[in-house]
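Listing 4. Sequential folding, example run.
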Amino acid sequence: MADVTRVIADLTAEGDELDTLVAPLSVEQWSTDTPASGWTIAHQIAHLAWTDYASLTAISDSEGFGRMLEEFGKDPLHAVDKVAEEWAAQSPEELLAKWRDGRARLAAALATVPEGTRIAWFGPPMSAASMATARLMETWAHGLDVADALGARRAPTARLKNLAHLGVRTRNFAYMVNGQPAPAEEFRVELKAPDGDTWAWGPEDAAQRVTGPAEDFCLLVTQRAHRDDLALVAVGDDAQHWLAIAQVFAGPPGGGRKPKGAA
């Protein structure tokens, strides 16, 4: 079981790092296009701010979150884009203040969730540690889009272990959202951490194996890079197929990114 205090600390650090990237931006720069089609930097931060608000609602107001679920269910394919557009219409100053307030309140709320409690969500209900991990994943992934838009490079950190763990644990979810049966056997995943250490999951003697840099695995499962541009190695047909459909985020199958240099 993940240590919720540690994950919350990692989530806070990830948000703070992204904050330092966007805080100095001019009003014009907030309208810079990111690699996500139709999304500017403002859309990226708006999405994070709204999802923090949704997470807070799920923790503190079950009826209010139920209404949120009902509203999203009316148009599940476009609801995320619609909300991002609405929240991005605020001034950068208002949006930044709202995001800062929301992520601070969420960190505090997650720390008070009783052990064993399952929090309702748009996917399966989650523990506080799992919700914190999911928020960290989104902060990293959308922060990467912001960094790419600005031509900045964010160095990988040990915080990626949270995301990699989530990527491994959501293997069967990726099959489910693609309408495919998941393999019965466990896979072995061995990833090289930013500090040169090895992070590993699954039986050492598993026939289906995935190896490579942890950052590349995280880029793959968040669909922030095409597999052709990543140094991941899959052994076994099932492992090969998993890397083609892997996704760590909730919702329908993602479209992914094109290979570098593709039209």
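-- end of first protein; second protein begins --
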Amino acid sequence: MLNSHSSVAASPRQPQCYPAPFLVQPCNLLIEGTCEKAKTWSGKMIQEESVLVAAVTCKRWGCRYCSRIKISRLATLCKLAGPNRLLTLTVDPKNYQSPRHAFDATAGLVPELIRSLRKRFGEVEYLRVTELHKSGFPHYHMLIRSGFLPHAVVKAEWNRLTQNQIVDLRQVDGSFQSYTYLTKYLSKLHRIEWTDRHVSYSKKFFPDGSLDKPKGDTVVDGKIHNCHPFEFLANHCMNRTVLQTGRMTFILTSKELVASTSRPDGF
């Protein structure tokens, strides 16, 4: 039985560099620190007698494992986006029954604000991050790429849409580290228990093609297994060494293929 409550520090399952050998033993199969809702995808590799095994994660902001991956990816992509302004939009708690009511009432108005600004000032692309104030009420940090935006106009438009008046708009230069900025705020997102809609962005904020998933043609006959990848490895490769090629990606060679043929869920 896999251990989901042991210390993550005791597990060597995430070496610093890949590819690396991974010994399939109970002490290395600690679900804590991974996406606990992950399922397993497996597929045969065309050019060699082996199988690629990878996690199909939940990809929710509320998942500590998945959120770390999403934060890193978004922050890296933001370097390419080249934002030149920071915009913070706040809400007045007096206008809402609860923090969730404030979020539901205002988050959808952020794109409307951007559309209004575009009509007057041309290109305005953005990435929005929700953060909670100490009071529990949300406010929105935004990375903006645009030409000149008058603070008074942005404030007036946000007030018109939401009856909230406090807006902070500032320009940033080439020394601004969007990676650090995003990591700071996105790392807090697991605390927002009533929504997974922590982040949104305009279609043209990121460079063309940067959000595309890599395409590959080296794996065939892929299928989903309704178990965690560590359970999958325990069933097929216990006490064997497999090749770990990513955080939750492994290659099973011919030895493991032979060992798994007698199992009902074998390849």
